[in-house]
Amino acid sequence: MTSTDHNGFSTSTGSGDSLNEIRTDIVTLTRFILTEQSARAGTTATGDFTLLLNSLQFAFKFIAHNIRRATLVNLIGLAGASNATGDDQKKLDVIGDEIFINAMRASGKVKVLVSEEQEDIIVFEGDGRYCVVCDPIDGSSNLDAGVSVGTIFGVYKLQEGSTGTIEDVLRAGSEMVAAGYTMYGASANLVLTTGHGVNGFTLDNALGEFILTHPDIRIPKSRSIYSVNEGNTVYWDTATREYFESLKIPPAGGKPYSARYIGSMVADMHRTLLYGGIFAYPADVKSKNGKLRLLYECFPMAFLVEQAGGLATNGKQRILDIVPSQIHARSGIFLGSELEVQKVVEYYNKHESV
Ligand code: P6P
To answer: Using CA of residue 65, residue 82, residue 183, residue 106, what is the dihedral sign?
Structure first.
């Protein structure tokens, strides 16, 4: 017997004595992208973007494969080098970076690539019309402990007439045309925006396809969860300190918030996007520009959160309005549910005005 669920998916059920419903009409990432492309057929859609996204998904599948087998083939552990921003490189950092660079080069659609693991921009031969910024394996310091890590990426269109220079990527986050992350946990979860909402896909290892499992993700307007490294409290500015104190010691009758901090941005972001609340890595006296990188960590996550109905700020400015001074520039960040982030801004406005 075939029935159609609220998403319009047809499903066939067993003989009636089986509780399992077998979905026979699944939406793969490729099908989703092609549907999106044909929906924009009236625009200048040439298929290049679709091919770029297909190359991105190949990179995620390949990285996921290596992370899954990492322990078995001893890929975990230090590679004995450090990256462009001074972090100790894990073997998987190096492999993830190489996989990503090769996939972007092979796509033929990318002109400029920025990677956390590379000091300078990479300019490819050919007439690629896109610029990709990425953190190939974010959170890799947690790898040995089996904590979920992820790949974070953002996409700009090459500027008209440009041959591919650093100016193509030193642009406000609001100029990105796509962004997302793939979290490598119990399964590989890809969360993507192309500027028309946020959709989540889960890698089916048997099919080798990312399947649409979280259509049209919307972040709750508020949620009593905060996610921050409280070990930095002594370094925070007054606005940040007062804000988090107000969550832990609420006005009479209020209920304290719950603390959740994994220490892997992709994992903390994924929970915040699905459950709501606030994730923060504030700038402080120890890291005056914050720890997280603007181009390939803050911008993609801010783009996703805003597309899902949330907000992202450094306390004083919308993250997506910031223009990076250099490709590895850092920024403080507060992101998540609209009403939670608005409270942060109120504390900053209060201290700004004094
Ligand atoms: P801390 C991981 O190293 C990372 O870059 C992000 O994924 C994460 O949010 C942050 O650093 C954690 O930093 O100082 O709390 O360990």
So the answer is: negative
**Helix axes 29-39 and 48-69, enclosed angle (nearest 10):** 160
44 pLDDT higher than 70: no
Q: What is the pLDDT of residues 300-315, one digit of tens each?
A: 999 999 999 999 999 9
- Closest ligand 1 atom to residue 263 Cα is 12
Q: How far, in Å, CA of 33 to CA of 297, rounded?
A: 23
CATH number for region 225-352 = 3.40.190.80
Instruction: Give the integer Cα–Cα distance in Å for 8 and 122.
Output: 43
User: In the CATH hierarchy, which fold is given to the domain comprising 2-214?
Assistant: Fructose-1,6-Bisphosphatase; Chain A, domain 1 (3.30.540)
- Compute the distance from residue 1 Cα to the ligand 1 centre, in Å: 50
Using DSSP's 3-state secondary structure scheme, residue 13 falls into: strand
Beta strands 110-115 and 130-138, pairing class: parallel
Name which residue sits closest to atom 1 of ligand 1, judged by CA. 263
Which atom, in ligand 1's list, is nearest to the CA of 261? 15
Task: Give the single-character DSSP code of 166.
Answer: G
Map out the domains of the chain as residue ranges: 2-214, 225-352
Please state the pTM of the whole predicted model: 0.90
Q: Name the closest-CA residue to atom 16, ligand 1.
A: 263
